[in-house]
Amino acid sequence: MDEIRVWKWMKKEEENKVFLCQTLLHHYSPSIDKDVLLLTASIEGIKYEFQEKLLGGAALDATGVPLPEDTLSVAKQSDAVLLGAIGGYKWDKNEKHLKPETGLLQLRAGLKVFANLRPATVFPQLVDASTLKREVAEGVDLMVVRELTGGIYFGKPRGFGTNENGEETGYNTEIYAAHEIDRIARFAFEVARKRRGKLCSVDKANMLEASMFWRKRVLAFAQEYPDVELSHMYVDNAAMQLIRNPKQFDTIVTNNIFGDILSDEASMITGSIGMLPSASLGDSGPGLFEPIHGSAPDIAGQDKANPFATVLSAAMLLRYGLGEDKAAERIEKAVMDTLNRGFRTADIYSSGTKLVGCKQLGEEILKSVESPVPAGAV
Length: 378
Ligand SMILES: NC(=O)c1ccc[n+]([C@@H]2O[C@H](COP(=O)([O-])OP(=O)(O)OC[C@H]3O[C@@H](n4cnc5c(N)ncnc54)[C@H](O)[C@@H]3O)[C@@H](O)[C@H]2O)c1
Prior knowledge:
Blueprint: E1 4-10, E2 16-21, H1 32-44, E3 47-53, H2 57-63, H3 69-77, E4 80-82, H4 100-111, E5 115-121, H5 134-137, E6 141-147, E7 159-162, E8 168-171, H6 178-194, E9 198-203, H7 209-219, E10 229-234, H8 235-244, E11 251-254, H9 256-269, E12 277-281, E13 287-291, H10 308-321, H11 325-340, E14 343-344, E15 354-355, H12 358-370
Parallel strand pairs: 4-13, 6-11, 9-10, 9-11, 14-15
Antiparallel strand pairs: 1-2, 1-3, 5-6, 5-12, 7-8, 12-13
The chain binds nicotinamide-adenine-dinucleotide.
């Protein structure tokens, strides 16, 4: 079920491009991310080749570890890495170091991708799929910039212990070094500058020392970016404001755990977690591109998964990973075109649209990649 592909791209100038791609074959059959990329590349004249590698559950089953050395080494040599999602019930009870999720964290750390970009855009065609009222959801277009390789998910000490009363405990450490905050702050200011010039830094500086430090470091960059309007918000308020008035946000920068939670919350404004791609980038080396959703094991094998997030991740890969803007645009337009033609999976269905399964939606996206199909043709 859990599978990964390694792709070698040879651009027009025969430069080798390699990326990893984990697709959920139980959802996407034929694998839509692969097919969309292959078709787009052939139309846009980008040459490629690929091979397959393992990560997550499939790697555990085959090799006993969630991130085989070979996989990491190929990923590091690549120009971009595309993932589907890892995880599943089968491995849920594994010890931490033997969980599929550990492989993903190791891959992110190994590639040193510290900045995670998670756009939450409400497509005009999907306003009614949002759980929020039309007037609240319409026009939302925000970007969450999440710190990805630090904070409580990686901080030490961590573990299980016993307290002074002899009672069992579990503990983690929220810790950020100055350079970790500085590089994500700079990254977020740059993103905000290219968008609508508004940056909201989310923390819990009224309670947590790590957040007080975060706020101090972020604030120090304000002078360098006078064209960006910087604000600060506590995470509990941000969670509320995202539902109350999401249009107030342009770019949000926050730590690893707050970003994890807020970006999932933001996804619901857009109608479904199945619509949202993400890009994780470092200073150099390949970027990692993946939908923000997990492996959705509750609907595995039912042909219900929404493939748009995966397809849009492929577009982000082309744009931010390989600098192939035209090819990325072709995919983004194909998504719009497929939506315009009324096709929806169950998670984004509303009355008057056409309910289809994952497989058929994938086929419709491919048609739109090849040539936009006039709305009247279906
Ligand atoms: N980056 C990753 O690979 C990643 C991220 C999150 C969770 N996970 C793993 O995935 C497994 C399931 O986790 P979870 O249930 O918390 O999160 P999930 O994102 O897999 O699912 C949450 C809910 O959203 C739905 N959903 C998710 N993607 C969808 C799609 N494309 N179309 C329609 N509905 C979709 C699911 O059916 C489920 O009801 C776990 O093993 C978890 O660790 C992996």
